[in-house]
Amino acid sequence: MKRCLGLILLSSFAVHPLLAQTGGERSPFTGKWIATIDFFGSPLYLKIDLDQQGDKLVGKFGSDALQGTINGSQYHFLAKDMNGGTEESTGHLEKGTLQGDVVETSGDDPSHPFKYTFTAAPILPRTAAAPQRHEFTPTTFYRQFSPLNKPVLRINPGDTIHTTTVDAGGVDAKDVRRVLGGNPQTGPFYVETAMPGDTLVVHINRLRLNRDWAGSDDGLVERSTDSRLAVKVKDNGKNIKWHLDTTAGTASPAKPSEHVAKYTIPLRPMLGCVATAVGPSAAPPPTGDSGAYGGNMDFNEIVEGATIYLPVFNPGALLYFGDGHAAQGDGELNGNALETSMDVEVTVDVIPGKRPPLPRVENATTIIATGIDGSLDDAFRAATSNMASWLADDYKLTPSEIAQVLGTAAQYKVAEVADRNVNVVLKIDKERLKTITPP
């Protein structure tokens, strides 16, 4: 269905009636609503904007303008799209919840209308309460970025979560295995007021290692080798344990072989996975996968001080994160990095009414557009398109101006090639954008 967004059970968010005032009279239909549509057994989401004017009703059903009438608690409206299609709905308001039937007719095929039902709850305004800090101790870890997993905590925009993650193999800070491996996640966290079509903002305040070792191996992923190198490394793949020296700020092989006996690298803790739950049009992906929702992006600049912008597909966004790495080179060439558990503190926010096509990252000096797709070529194109739309939306640049900026300031980086999808990112230094400050 062309207009429907997201998936989750309606019971997972509170229903509170919104009462508006029109001409001094109570107007219970007026407001913004999120509808859960039963579309042939699949729940989908749609936003509805209504304005009650006496016994008349105007607004939008998704993006389609509607007009209708009200008789007590009953309503009837007709919405029209740009191609001659219509949605005709009849229903009622009961205890602050809209319930209705819709007959949808396509402008291309008017002889085959179809019918579905929906239940809609009001979209609550952002709370005026002071931001809270939540200490959360996880007891369950999930292995899918699913909208069906029960939220572990409900928080408001502006709130901060302090919690922990297990490593990619499911082992915690005390070396206790808590769950099957495969990048098990902490969460999902339900963010009040976040709705399909919004952006979830995740500020990474603190990432701290909470044990003195990490695991990796000595393999190289297939995308990184030609036929000659593949023959040379065909017998690789053994586990490598790393010692993490938080005092010195370095990592080194715990049992090094001859030539790397003195090899060390600087610690740079990062989150391999940050995600919102997917919507209903795709099966819940495993936590080793990535896509428009974020997920296993394995980008080594998702570190302390970074801000991640993620599309929202469900009420509450349903934020997951995990897969901590003590350090990782570009591409995650071993198929893993220095996998370890982590203490994490994030602050969340919501940008209503706009959603990026793919995740974006920002830090003090750079804006970064991800490109996540099945090949390096396609990921390169996706990163370019993602950044182009960022420059158009936030900096109001024309296509000509976008091309001028990209052609002179773009920096590409291969973030990850280890999994089903590749992640190529496009970076632009904020110094280059100072003279085109967004409006």
Summary, kept brief:
This protein is mostly beta strands and 439 residues long. 9% of the residues lie in helices and 43% in strands.
What's the structural blueprint in terms of helices and strands?
Blueprint: E1 20-22, E2 25-27, E3 31-39, E4 42-53, E5 56-61, E6 64-71, E7 74-80, E8 86-94, E9 97-106, E10 109-122, E11 133-135, E12 153-155, E13 160-165, E14 185-191, E15 199-209, E16 213-217, H1 227-232, E17 239-245, E18 250-253, E19 265-266, E20 270-276, E21 290-291, E22 294-296, E23 307-311, E24 319-325, E25 342-351, E26 360-362, E27 366-373, H2 376-395, H3 399-409, E28 411-416, E29 422-429, H4 430-433
Parallel strand pairs: 11-13, 12-14
Antiparallel strand pairs: 1-2, 3-4, 3-10, 4-5, 5-6, 6-7, 7-8, 8-9, 9-10, 13-25, 14-24, 15-23, 15-25, 16-17, 17-18, 18-19, 20-22, 20-24, 21-22, 23-26, 26-27, 27-29, 28-29
Helix pairs in contact: 2-3
CATH homolog superfamily of the domain at 133-214 and 251-355: Acetamidase/Formamidase-like domains
CATH class of the domain at 133-214 and 251-355: Mainly Beta
Largest sheet: 9 strands, mixed
- CATH architecture annotation of the domain at 133-214 and 251-355: Sandwich
Strand order of the largest sheet: 11-13-25-15-23-26-27-29-28
Number of beta strands: 29
Instruction: Enter the CATH topology name of the domain at 133-214 and 251-355.
Output: Jelly Rolls
Structural class: mainly beta
Rg over CA atoms: 24 Å
Describe this entry's structure for a reader:
- The chain is mainly β and 439 residues long.
- Among the domains are: 10-122, Lipocalin (Beta Barrel), CATH 2.40.128; 133-214 and 251-355, Acetamidase/Formamidase-like domains (Jelly Rolls), CATH 2.60.120.580.
- The protein contains 4 helices and 29 strands.
- The strands form 5 sheets. It has a 9-stranded mixed beta sheet. The chain has an 8-stranded antiparallel barrel with strand order 3-4-5-6-7-8-9-10.
- Strand 9 (97-106) and strand 10 form a beta hairpin.
- Helix 2 (376-395) packs across helix 3.
- The two termini are 35 Å apart.
